[in-house]
């Protein structure tokens, strides 16, 4: 007697979810690799994927002789590749921060931009730029993000229990205050070209990304983003409320503040590199949640990969759509994110 082959219908629901997660993870990882290579080939200089691989292989010591000219090698290695990798790291980090903040505050509208973290980080980063301490940009951005997060949660809590609407209103107030403070600092101290440079940075731009920025973003992603991704099962406990989380053995207050501090640190570093880019942390977790469900040990890695792919292509669009002029990437993400934000509001209204 020959046994019938087992199909998907023979799998348990848990095994089927795991299989879908693994397939999604592999698919997004392949899409990210392909996006990185293709994005590097797009631009005024016509470069093929083979040349991109040849430059990477030569730089990594995998091949002895580089078949690509020095000029084209410089375009790939010094200009496009660090920028594309920085965009991927920024997208992944912001998507992780958004998913974590939505779970910790049980607020589907939470993200670093709406809760004021990005604006607070901008105040710190601009302060460092204006005093000429550019090496301390990430430190200033982290302190600004941390202060903004404390103000937002403190203001929301002063109104009673932290609800979604209170957190958003408090975040908008803190964001407006931080934006006004940033504008005042620029008005008071910036002159000449520095005014234009800071304004361009505030609208979100990866035009100046170099290997040092890419390295910093990847280190922050590994040091802070990876532990946050590994905390998916803890975040699952927060989804059902503080009482349920305590019943699972979670030190609720300590865990919440440690993880929010981690998101502030990661946001601060990323804002220092890319400027204030909104909506990535809001729309990517929601888009992934619609497909993969709400379990955070699945949601977080998928959102990170989806965020990386999203930012690679929005940054590519920002530098090529109006060539030779470059559109700030923050404008592109806002054009996509604002309608998505409205749809999320509409969906939440129907759900309630």
UniProtKB/TrEMBL annotation:
It is a multi-pass membrane protein. It comes from the Bacteria. It is found in: Cell membrane. The chain crosses the membrane at residues 81-101, 113-131, 137-156, 168-190, 257-284, 296-315, 327-346. Keywords: Cell membrane, Membrane, Transmembrane, Transmembrane helix, Transport. Belongs to the binding-protein-dependent transport system permease family. FecCD subfamily. This is F420-0 ABC transporter permease subunit.
């Amino acid at each position: 007697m020959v046994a019938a082959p087992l199909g998907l219908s023979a799998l348990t629901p848990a095994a089927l979810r795991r299989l879908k997660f693994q397939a999604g993870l592999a698919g997004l990882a392949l899409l990210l690799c392909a996006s990185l290579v293709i994005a590097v080939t797009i631009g005024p200089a016509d470069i093929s994927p083979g040349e991109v691989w040849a430059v990477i292989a030569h730089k990594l010591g995998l091949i002895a002789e580089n078949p690509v000219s020095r000029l084209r090698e410089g375009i790939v290695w010094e200009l496009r590749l660090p920028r594309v990798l920085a965009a991927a790291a920024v997208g992944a980090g912001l998507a992780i921060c958004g998913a974590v903040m939505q779970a910790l505050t049980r607020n589907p509208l939470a993200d670093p931009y709406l809760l004021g973290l990005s604006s607070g980080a901008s105040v710190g980063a601009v302060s460092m730029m204006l005093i000429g301490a550019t090496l301390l940009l990430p430190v200033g951005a982290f302190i600004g993000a941390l202060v903004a997060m404390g103000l937002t949660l403190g203001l929301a809590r002063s109104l009673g229990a932290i609800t979604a609407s209170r957190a958003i209103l408090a975040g908008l107030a803190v964001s407006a205050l931080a934006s006004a403070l940033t504008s005042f600092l620029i008005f008071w101290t910036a002159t000449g070209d520095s005014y234009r440079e800071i304004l361009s940075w505030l609208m979100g731009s990866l035009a100046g990304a170099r290997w040092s920025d890419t390295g910093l973003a990847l280190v922050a992603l590994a040091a802070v983003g990876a532990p946050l991704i590994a905390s998916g099962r803890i975040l699952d406990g927060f989804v059902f409320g503080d009482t349920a989380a305590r019943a699972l053995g979670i030190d609720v207050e300590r865990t919440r503040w440690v993880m929010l501090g981690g998101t502030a640190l990661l946001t601060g570093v990323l804002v220092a590199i890319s400027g204030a880019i909104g909506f990535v942390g809001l729309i990517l977790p929601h888009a992934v949640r619609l497909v993969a469900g709400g379990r955070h040990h699945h949601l977080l890695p998928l959102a990170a990969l989806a965020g990386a792919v999203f930012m690679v292509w929005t940054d590519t669009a920002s530098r090529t759509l109006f060539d030779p002029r470059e559109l700030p990437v923050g404008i592109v993400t806002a054009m996509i994110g604002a309608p998505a934000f409205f749809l999320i509001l509409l969906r939440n209204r129907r759900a309630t």
